Structures are given as C-alpha cells and as structure tokens.
Target: Guanine deaminase
Amino acid sequence: ACSSSAATNFKVFRGTFVHSTQEEALVILEDALLGVDSTGKISFVEKGPELEKVSAKFGFNPSAVTQLSPQEFFMPGLVDTHIHAAQYSFAGTALDLPLLDWLQTYTFPVESRYSDLEFARQVYTHVVKRTLRNGTTTACYFATIHTDASLLLGEIANDFGQRALVGKVCMDRNGLHEHYKEETQESLDETSRCGNTFYIININITHFSRYPLVKPVVTPRFSVSCTSELMLKLAEVARNNNLHIQSHISENMDEVRLVQELFPESESYTDVYRKHNLLTSKTIMAHGCYLSDEELQIFHQTGSSLAHCPNSNLSLCSGLLDVRKVLSHKVKLGLGTDVAGGYSPSMLDAVRRTRDTSKALKIQDPVHQTLTWEETFRLATLGGSQGIPPQPKPSFRAFWS
Ligand code: GUN
Ligand code: FE
Model:
C-alpha cells in the first residue's frame, strides 16, 4: 500500500484514532501510527509500540512523529451533504413559516442579492471558515442562480482548504420573486459555464484544475421550481460530463401535494425525478421524509443517496425522517445541516438532531429501534462520503489486523 518514492515525505501521527467501517460503526485504535504521504493520502496505519520497526519499514524518522496528548484523538472529517451557503446570512432567524412560504418570504429575496459579488464574498468567506472550524472538511453546497458568485464560492472553499461540491442553483418556474428567476436556456447555459470553469476546461483540456478541491454539481432546486424541459436537459449535462446531481425531495406534505399537481402523470415525487433521468449513483437528494417503500426501492436501484437534514426538518416543522427505514432499504445516507432551514452550521448539531429525531420516532412508536450514537457518528463521516466519494477509502482494519 506504500510507494517507496513517497516514503521520505511521510508525515506520521501517533495517538488514538476513532473512525467507522461498514462492518463496525465505531472503531477505536488506541496508540496507533498513521502515515500520510506527500499527496495528502493516508498510506499506512500501524501499531504505536512498533514505532522502530514501522519507521524502518516505511523510511521515516521516528523522532519526527507528531504525538497527541492522551486527551486528544483523531477522527475523520465531517461531511455536510446538504448546505445552502447563500442562506448562511440569515441562519438562526426566520423559522416561523412552513417550507413553501419560508422560501417565498425569506429565502428567495435573500438569494436574489448574490448578483452582488462583494456581498457574496463576505457571506461565502464566513460560511466556509465557520464550517471548517466546526470540522466540516467536505461540503455539498447550494449557492444561488448566479454563476459568478457560485464560482467565487468554489474559489473561497479551495483557498481555505475545504473539499466542496458547488451547485449553481437552477429554477425556471414558480420563482414568484420578480428578481429571482431564470429562463430555461439561460439556466442551462449558466450551468455549463459554471461547470466548464470548475471542471471541464481545467481538467480535460489543461489537465490542471484551478480549484483542485472543488467540483461542480448539477443543481435543479426541486421539482416545484423546474420545468420538465430544464430537468431533462440538466440530466443530460450531468450524464455527458459525469457530474453529481443534487436537489430536494419529499420534505414537506404541502410540497409533496404540489408536486403531484404539477406532474399528474407521475406516480410519486421520486418518479418525477426518475422520469427526468435525475436519479443516478451520483445523485444526492435532501430530506425524503415522506418517501414510500416503493420510492426507497427506486433509490436503492438507482444508487441515489439521501441527505438527512434533521435540524431543518424540525425547525421548519417539515417532518421526521425514519433513518432506520432508509438504511433497511440499503439506501446510501449522509447528514446535512441544510442551513438556513437548519439553524446550525455544525455537523455535530446534525448528529445530535439525528438522535433527537430517532427518539421522537420512538415516542410515537415504542418498537422503533433508535439509532445509537456510534451509528450516528458513522452517518456524519463514512455515510456522507458514500454520496460524495472523495477517494477510495483505505481500510484501517486491513492494515491493522
Ligand atoms: N426546497 C427547495 N429549496 C429549498 C431550500 O432552499 N431549503 C429547503 N430546506 N428546502 C428547499
Ligand atoms: Fe435544502
């Protein structure tokens, strides 16, 4: 697992490591050695007391090892699978309306301000710094409809060292705010411009990414604000360029009913996205509180994943997602803060609200099997990384045993 050319450049850490695997929700490795190669990838995990042997094998200086104190431990970065960077400006306020009214009254007017790049720079700098400080090393962001501000968000995330998926939001109908809507063709052209700048030009043509930590994500806001034509063509953009897709699904009952009215020919909310080719193995759908067993089966079959956003679900009184049921259908699931429907940008808060929601479900139904905190930790780390695979994951167990 280790290449000798990188051997002289290892950074080696010693201490307690806490992480998750598919088999075990929480693994604690006490007094372990972890080596990171010059590209930033973990190359080995070995036993601390075998320092002499390990340093000889991998060729590093044992006195240069960084040792943690007994009170400290290492853990994987937290993955926020759903956060609206632009809404950070009003996080913690305006939570007195249900979803559709909340969007019209508070959210669209604020998002319309991101044509102002100075305003965008201020808010986006704050949200990236804050989430990093809270342990979010990877974030899947919704920006706004504005391409230039979305590109700026990518630049800022990259500069501060956060891995980010950045979505220029697409919405060509039902944007009742007169300054916050786009035409279908404009939405498509701007999505391509955004993707080209982040990705296609950088990687395919020059073989050099301007923002190596950042990827574009195709972002139809949700079925309510997108025409059939826009969704079909966005799916094509995603397929032609092998891009991630993100949107919202089945968050609130009024929304579910409205989607049924807007797409009467579809069997369910999930069927709307499936018919528009938006359910792929690189799709992340937020919420999913009211998905039926049949819909969850479609998620499983297509390999699409869900972002569970418990703070937002509670704050906007949207619903209670039964994570146990989602997992029993073998659907990939991570956690999201959904700022500003969720009032906290911290993924540790998302962990707590995930357990609160699970316990609320148990109050309603005493046979409900609550999520353990070990499982919830796994959802916030490994769970999120399934929807947003950063790199193939090293298996600590394989090195260890
Ligand atoms: N559905 C469509 N847009 C949004 C949004 O900005 N926040 C939340 N929570 N749900 C949405
Ligand atoms: Fe959201």
User: Anything to note?
Assistant: The pocket of guanine (ligand 1) is lined by residues 84, 99, 103, 107, 221-222, 248, 251, 312, 338, 341 (CB under 6 Å). Residues 184-205 form the longest helix (22 residues). The chain has two domains: 7-75, 78-387.
